[in-house]
Amino acid sequence: MSTPTIDDPTAAVAEAAPVNTRGRVILASLIGTSIEFYDFYVYATAAVLVFPALFFPNTDPTTALLSSFAAFGAAFVARPIGSILFGHFGDRIGRKRTLVASLLTMGVATVLIGCLPTAQVPGWQFAAPAILVVLRFCQGLGLGGEWSGAALLATENAPKGRRAIYGTFPQLGAPIGFIIANVVFLVLSTTLDAEHFQAWGWRVPFLVSAVLVIVGLYVRFRLVETPAFQKVVEKGEVAKVPLASVFKTSWRPLILGTFIMLATYVLFYLMTTFTLTYGTAKTDAAVPGLGYSRNDFLIMLVVGCVFFGIFTLIAGPLAERFGRRNTLFWTTVGIVAFGLLFVPLFSAGFVGTMALLVIGFTLMGLTFGPMGSVLPELFPTNVRYTGSAISYNVASILGAAVAPFIAVALWQAANGSTALVGNYLSLMGLITLAALYISKDTRDVDYQS
């Protein structure tokens, strides 16, 4: 008897006889993305708080910050590559084992960042920043394959008429991961003085990731393959080269999915990375900010992110009742309007800033929640992993990779005003509105085809 190879789709059939329980599906899709986004946000927070001084110490503060953001953006360049790599195996050998591989890739890279010598160590002035970029690239590879697999795990196991609701569970991993990452940083920064935090305390959140990855792997190894992929295998319809197939048969959904996701990405990384930069910049700096302490603003971000989680869950039932397209269209209208409120809200003291964070994260939940069902529903089952992953991650380059960099440049160009930053968000929202306008609702598509 021949032994199934890693690229042999029949390997998935032997282990697919049982059915995943609802609790197992929810936990596996939620815990994986929570860990992945925790890893990702730990880096994002460190990129603002400590990496400019630790890895780019021989430049002025603004250049160091922009260099840190450039390293941050390396992951977004990697994400489409990860979507192709993991998408290939996700559509060839199944969702389960691909999700295990993506989690390991992200987790190992994150732990290694926590062990990396800084550029301040003799002999590491050039090597440390270079290795940091490589590890950041590996983080991007892992996340490039993680999201789509988790979304498919949830939606391909969902009962009829509940795909959008199930699709919100992997999405909930984003606010959960963000909150955990920032709480860890808060605990460390309040229990350690600045010298010890700068010396070694920043490493702890990266090293803690190892424990989270072990938990995530345990949950995912207990999964069985999704029913939708099993049917593809049984029918002999597994795509030999999913990348070629998706570009040949589904190029229009690839384009639409990318731009449907654009405003979501820009909004999220403005609300997390840019607001932290602007909120903690000194009021008397060359490019003035709000002057909050790091800990105070992290607490404000965590409070805002609670609304992100709540409205991510609310978005699922709304998308089931009113349709994915309608829910996203009117939420995006809100994002366009929100961009015009940056200056008046940021100028209104603590109340205005807190209102901006609450409104922004609420809109983030409403737009991010339905994406777990919308993007996968655009593609047939045999290329669904690859197609949804590419759309999601190409949007990450067009939106999230450049958003912090563009926002800082616009903020500096306006001498400390956030007017241009808000206009940038509104413009990206208009592009997403155009994509939604010409798209069709996917609520009633046949998800087994």
From TrEMBL:
<dbReference type="Pfam" id="PF07690">
    <property type="entry name" value="MFS_1"/>
</dbReference>
<feature type="domain" description="Major facilitator superfamily (MFS) profile">
    <location>
        <begin position="25"/>
        <end position="441"/>
    </location>
</feature>
<dbReference type="InterPro" id="IPR020846">
    <property type="entry name" value="MFS_dom"/>
</dbReference>
<dbReference type="InterPro" id="IPR005829">
    <property type="entry name" value="Sugar_transporter_CS"/>
</dbReference>
<comment type="similarity">
    <text>Belongs to the major facilitator superfamily. Metabolite:H+ Symporter (MHS) family (TC 2.A.1.6) family.</text>
</comment>
<comment type="function">
    <text>May be a proton symporter involved in the uptake of osmolytes such as proline and glycine betaine.</text>
</comment>
<keyword id="KW-0812">Transmembrane</keyword>
<keyword id="KW-0813">Transport</keyword>
<dbReference type="GO" id="GO:0015293">
    <property type="term" value="F:symporter activity"/>
</dbReference>
<dbReference type="InterPro" id="IPR011701">
    <property type="entry name" value="MFS"/>
</dbReference>
<keyword id="KW-0769">Symport</keyword>
<keyword id="KW-1003">Cell membrane</keyword>
<keyword id="KW-0472">Membrane</keyword>
<dbReference type="GO" id="GO:0005886">
    <property type="term" value="C:plasma membrane"/>
</dbReference>
<protein>
    <recommendedName>
        <fullName>Putative proline/betaine transporter</fullName>
    </recommendedName>
</protein>
<dbReference type="InterPro" id="IPR036259">
    <property type="entry name" value="MFS_trans_sf"/>
</dbReference>
<keyword id="KW-1133">Transmembrane helix</keyword>
